[in-house]
Design a protein that fits this description.
About 45% of the residues lie in helices and about 10% in strands. By secondary structure, the chain is α/β, with parallel strands linked by helices. Helix 14 crosses helix 19, helix 16 packs across helix 19 and helix 19 packs antiparallel against helix 20. The two termini are about 25 Å apart.
Amino acid sequence: MGDAGRHHHRHGSFGSRDLENSGSDASGYSDEHDRDDGTRDWDSRDSYSVRSDDPVPSKIERSGSVGYSKPGKKDPIGALLKLMDMMEENGGHDERSLNDYDGESHLMGKGGKGYDNEFFDDASTRRPPSVTRSYMSEEEEELEYTAAPFYVQDEENGDYGEDEDGKPIYPAELDSQKPQIEKKYKQRNRINWLGSSVFFIYLVAFCFYMWIRVTKTLDLGQFVAYGIAILVIEIMGATATVIYGLNLILRPVYETFPDDPENPGRPLVDHPYHIRVLIPCYKEPLEIVGRTATAALDAELPRTCQRTVYLLDDGKDAAKRKWCMQMGSEMVYVSGRRRAPGEMNGKSANLNNAMRQIYPEGVPIPLNEMVCIFDADQVANPDFFLKTVPLFDAGDDVGMVLSPQAYHNLKQHADIFNHANVHFWEYAQPGYDALGFISCTGTNFLTRSCAFREAGWSPEYTLTEDFALGMELKKCKYHCRYVEEYLAVGEAPDQVRNCFQQRSRWCKGHFQIFLSRRHCPLFQRGLSFFQRMMYCTGVWSYVVGAVTTPTYILIPLLTVWAGIFPIVVSQWAALGLTVYFAAQTLVLSYTKKVKHVEALWFASVSNSILWFTYVKACWRAAMSSCGSSLTFKTTLKGAGKLMNTALGDLWMPGGCLIVLLITLGFGIAKLVQGQTIITTLSISVVWLIYAAIPPFLICWYTVAGRGTTLQFWCRVMFVLSYAASICAIALLWAVYPPQ
């Protein structure tokens, strides 16, 4: 059957982030435990422990646990897990050092530009000290460290901006200055002829296949209802492929920017932008957050631009505050906000607290004010602002400029959770740009401050505030530009529990938006019909993944144990499946580079691993929207921690693997004992091998490690999956009755 449902987007889902890899989830707001009702347990997460009783240790280790580990406390389970990691070459990345960069970890960006390994050396950027977390005293915690309004800061710097007549704008005159959108952005696109041709071939093949399925393969007698149900699920899977194919038709045409005559090699911008860099954090160590802040502070700017970096600390860390105060006037520490009862999205609330301080209510925001957001671990390239800021000059209604995400701790040939998300960043997002669709991913982006305010700041009504922000900006008629170049690098979650929770959170966030009467994309008047449909594709793809994957596992099981096959095998069926499989493979394997084929395959593997997570997230989001009260997920330690980090998520893929292997053995035994080998049973045996690949890889990832051996098995399974698909098609031709 068609396997389209396994290839949908980000966030495991198309139109969202695996849709994320959304967004970066190394931020404290991304790795804390979710509550089952969609809210988060803020006090349960801190994965760092101090190695000794020294108040300022020389190094901070990541313990792999959830919650603080007391010095000297023995943890045999944790020691065993660490020993297993050490046995794997380049396995667990326990130290989480930015110097663990692997030259093959990242795919090349626009123009073949990738990351410079030197960028990750200690000497390349200023590095904060490695210190332990320092809690504030009760008196300090009562203080609120706020940011000054933007016009006060400009007054201190002696720069207020200028009006239309070239006269300086003073704070007293800001009330009468309303930003007017005079220059409108004009989208320019080109047709991607190769991508369009591949998509057109797929549409023709799909129509041909559907004609054969409806007219030639449903004569199943008493099992006709089963055959129709499988056909409907196939159509569901095909819709995900169609949505993905739409993004291959057009590509944006990017402007060329003149060099600044006074600074050759740097772009010349039309306005003196002031960029407010916001770095929200919770309990990440200063070593991580400070690296992000100094990279943002040291990155080059166009000549006429200014910047201020704000560290938004929800963890009230005195060490971070003291460090910020030593960094000069361009670094501002913000902390001490009061959390609202039942707060759902702490990251958004933290951002909005700072935004309302910097941009007071009732004071118009000039068009040259920008906000840039980095997650706590996202280290910007030195040319980040040189590549992004000029894109705002294309029009005053350009509300956002977005760049992709990459991670230093990935192995390109072992990315079974699809953190690299190549199909999203390098194929879907450029298509979104051309179609005028905004798919924000939460970090490494800039937004015009007045547009940010008009959109209501960062949405707090959902766990996926980034996706919701894109929709809110589009409702306000703003445009988004996409930079096809990796300009920042972060850290991807690699613990099984964190990966599953991340994808569950993304899925629940999309359903929160869709099931909301107020925010459902279908009922947003500011969106066109096409935009409403596009903003629903994330939810739809999660549904597709939650339905198609278990169905395609169930089909060979029923054939082996009950002798029920969902189609009438004939020459017509073989022809239709051959044509459709070839066309679908063309679309889902359409790449600019040969090595991307493997990366796109990992998207299929990831969704096959995570299907049950999507089922649970869909159900919990639906129950939460109905007012159900669900329990918190608690923090476990010792043996319970092992269950929490792995086995609690592995029971479904592990159970599937066991059932598939038992069925495979039984099927082979039946083939050996049967009179003929070439039957639908043989097709199902090959299908079982194909279906067992994703659960095998996640079990190996958890039990044996993430290093060289996992890379070996991923490459073997990559070849085996395509071989199994081709073998199944060949068997179809051999099974049909002779004429």
